[in-house]
Specification:
It contains five helices and two strands; from the N terminus they run ααααβαβ. It has 135 residues and is mainly alpha-helical. It has two domains: 42 residues; 61 residues, Ubiquitin-like (UB roll), CATH 3.10.20.600. The protein has a two-stranded antiparallel sheet. The two termini are 42 Å apart.
Length: 135
């Protein structure tokens, strides 16, 4: 799998040079990379009855009943020593900000919505002292 990613990265890096030198003919050798990827997918396609799941040990299975405070303190290691939490952005950069007083909000779609924000992609961003919220 890493070899395929590496081949795509190399093809992406050399494509402008090849197109500059060979013009439209450069797309013939460059098309071999996706063709190789297609071959890999065909060879590794799951067979009927074969498991298609992956077990990733470092991803904990969390309940949607957990609060933002528990998620931040217990699973993410909390706010760094010497800093104070100023804001929590619970669903990525395009959702409304929650204040530290709202950390006991349930980390679920409904809980975050009741607090006045959105869970969105669930990419939780913490803003602490030492970083400006706005420039």
């Amino acid at each position: 799998m890493l070899a395929i990613l590496f081949a795509h990265a190399v093809a992406t890096a050399v494509a402008p040079l090849l197109v500059y030198r060979w013009g439209r003919m450069a797309f013939y050798p460059l098309s071999l990379v996706p063709l190789g990827s297609l071959g890999w997918v065909a060879l590794n396609w799951p067979q009927p009855g074969r498991a298609t799941t992956a077990d990733v040990q470092w991803v904990p299975g969390l309940s949607m009943n957990i609060t933002l405070r528990e998620l931040i303190d217990d699973y993410a290691g909390g706010v760094r020593e010497g800093r104070t939490l100023k804001a929590v952005i619970p669903g990525g950069s395009s959702v409304p900000i929650l204040l530290p007083e709202q950390l006991d909000t349930q980390a679920s779609f409904d809980g975050i919505a009741k607090a006045g924000s959105l869970l969105g992609s669930a990419a939780i961003i913490l803003e602490a002292t030492g970083w400006p919220l706005c420039k």
